[in-house]
């Protein structure tokens, strides 16, 4: 055989060996992904319960060893505060940053219709595995008419992680993997995103007496938990030793801000005040819904010393949707509200009607990374907002009157005309506006 013939023969043999190895690898991977799919399915079947038109898995644990000791409720845990949030699979990556800023328990409800289930299950599993010392509870939610489906490409993303015992390696790349997950919340075709169902499910799993209700992309300032718990301790110490009950009809509001993507989230109120003065941070939804947070009275709050614990009580106002810490016994969120609009406004309205008061924490705040703008909303936002406004005015508020017959409060501002939804935005709210106020805050010693 000539040299050329030998070279050709060796090339064919080498190619054949590569193909055989590829087939073996593919076959091995297929078997492994099938096993992974079967493991996920068995967990779902065994632990899911019915929640109206959804199936829910509370305190989801993919590995039995995760569950050890979770049912033992210590007095210390009971008196703690849990961060309560919800998300779709493409927003799971925000949990990583929340864990870096929040030291207490966290309860997350993840919406996982159809083929999103693989990412919800494996994403939650690896977050818990990479943060074993943290008290994290995941709840998986999916519609009964959109049962779990499995795609090979989704399972392959997690294959190497799942079958590797090198935790430091996969934990190092977890954030990048989570950021690369594809998914949507508002734009899921015919599947409406059930914010309020998810919030109620996440709340159901809370084992502490207090909760901090946030959206998953809203980051708390550092030490919020410690500030709140110290406040509770001081309140209790001033009471009789046998009476450790803190008023349950008070919610503690944390002012919400949004910051430019290129700017780091401030760690202290002093840093925030400087950024605010220089136009790099502004009130949350300053452009897209100025009335949603204006009642927080940002400039008055900025004027309160950060050595104080509470700032002042705030009056309820139409369209207000603050983020807050409260007792877990606050009213549930109305699960009729889905997609965009009135999902939090309605619950804050019920807080007001049921007799709750709103007190701002003086040295705690929350921040959304990125400025909200009208152009970034999904295409059906206005239509959904209009639909939910009708639900809010024609059904929710009349139901509230029947539910609280003895209440003297009503979600109506006499100074404002009712009857038309504010679907369109105020024309004077220009995109270039840095804050929703006419004047910048006074200079402060920073």
What do these coordinates show?
- By secondary structure, the protein is an alpha/beta fold.
- The protein is 37% helix and 15% strand.
- It has 13 helices and 14 strands.
- It has helices spanning 3-47, 75-78, 94-101, 117-130, 152-162, 167-172, 174-179, 195-204, 224-237, 269-277, 298-302, 343-353, 381-403; strands spanning 49-51, 54-57, 81-88, 106-111, 136-143, 210-213, 218-220, 250-254, 256-259, 281-283, 310-314, 323-327, 357-361, 366-369.
- The strands form 2 sheets. It has a 10-stranded mixed β-sheet, sandwiched between helices. A 4-stranded mixed β-sheet has the order 7-14-9-10.
- A hairpin with a 2-residue loop joins strand 1 and strand 2 (54-57).
- It is globular.
- 36% of the residues are buried.
Q: Runs with pLDDT <50, length 5+?
A: 8-29, 65-72, 414-446
The total count of strands amounts to 14
Quote the average pLDDT: 80
Helical content class: 25-40%
In DSSP terms (H or I, runs of 4 or more residues), the helix count works out at: 13
Which descriptor suits the 3D outline?
Answer: globular
Assembly type:
single chain
Q: Could you tell me how far the N terminus lies from the C terminus, measured between alpha carbons in angstroms?
A: 85 Å
Largest sheet: 10 strands, mixed
- Structural class based on helices, strands and sheet pairing: alpha/beta
Share of residues in strands = 15-25%
Q: Reading side by side through the largest sheet, how are the strands ordered? A: 1-2-5-4-3-6-12-8-13-11
* Cα Rg: 25 Å
Helix and strand element order: HEEHEHEHEHHHHEEHEEHEHEEHEEH
């Amino acid at each position: 055989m000539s040299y050329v013939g030998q070279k050709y023969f060796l090339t064919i043999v080498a190619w054949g060996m590569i193909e055989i190895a590829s087939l073996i690898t593919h076959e091995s991977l297929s078997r492994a992904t099938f096993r992974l799919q079967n493991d996920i399915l068995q967990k779902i079947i065994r632990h899911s319960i019915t929640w109206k038109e959804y199936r829910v898995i509370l305190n989801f644990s993919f590995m039995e060893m995760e569950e050890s000791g979770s049912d033992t409720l210590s007095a210390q845990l009971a008196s703690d505060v849990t961060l309560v949030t919800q998300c779709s699979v493409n927003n799971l990556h925000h949990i990583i940053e929340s864990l870096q800023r929040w030291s207490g328990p966290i309860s997350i409800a993840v919406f996982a219709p159809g083929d999103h289930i693989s990412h919800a299950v494996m994403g939650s599993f690896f977050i818990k595995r990479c943060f074993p010392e943290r008290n994290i509870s995941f709840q998986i939610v999916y519609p009964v008419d959109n049962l779990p489906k499995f795609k090979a490409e989704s399972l392959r993303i997690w294959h190497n992680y799942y079958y590797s015992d090198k935790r430091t390696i996969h934990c190092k790349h977890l954030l990048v993997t989570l950021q690369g997950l594809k998914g949507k919340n508002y734009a899921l075709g015919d599947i409406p995103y059930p914010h309020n169902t998810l919030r109620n499910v996440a709340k159901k799993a809370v084992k502490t007496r207090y909760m901090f209700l946030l959206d998953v992309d809203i980051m708390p300032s550092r030490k919020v938990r410690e500030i709140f718990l110290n406040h509770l301790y001081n309140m209790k110490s001033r009471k009789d030793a046998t009476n450790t009950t803190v008023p349950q009809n008070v919610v503690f509001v944390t002012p919400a801000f949004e910051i430019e993507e290129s700017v780091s989230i401030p760690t202290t109120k002093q840093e925030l005040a400087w950024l605010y003065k220089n136009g790099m941070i502004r009130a949350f939804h300053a452009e897209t819904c100025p009335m949603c947070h204006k009642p927080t009275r940002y400039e008055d709050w900025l004027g309160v010393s950060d050595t104080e614990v509470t700032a002042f009580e705030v009056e309820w106002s139409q369209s207000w949707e603050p983020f807050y810490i409260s007792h877990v016994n606050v009213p549930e969120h109305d699960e009729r509200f889905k997609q965009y609009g009135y999902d939090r406004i309605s619950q804050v309205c019920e807080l007001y009607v049921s007799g709750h008061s709103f007190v701002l924490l003086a040295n705690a705040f929350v921040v959304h990374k990125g400025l909200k703008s009208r152009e970034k909303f999904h295409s059906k936002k206005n239509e959904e907002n209009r639909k939910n406004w009708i639900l809010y005015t024609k059904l929710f508020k009349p139901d509230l009157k029947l539910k609280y017959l003895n209440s003297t409060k009503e979600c109506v501002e006499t100074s404002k005309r009712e009857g038309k939804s504010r679907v369109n935005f105020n024309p004077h709210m220009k995109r270039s506006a840095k804050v929703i106020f006419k004047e910048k805050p006074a200079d402060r010693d920073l």
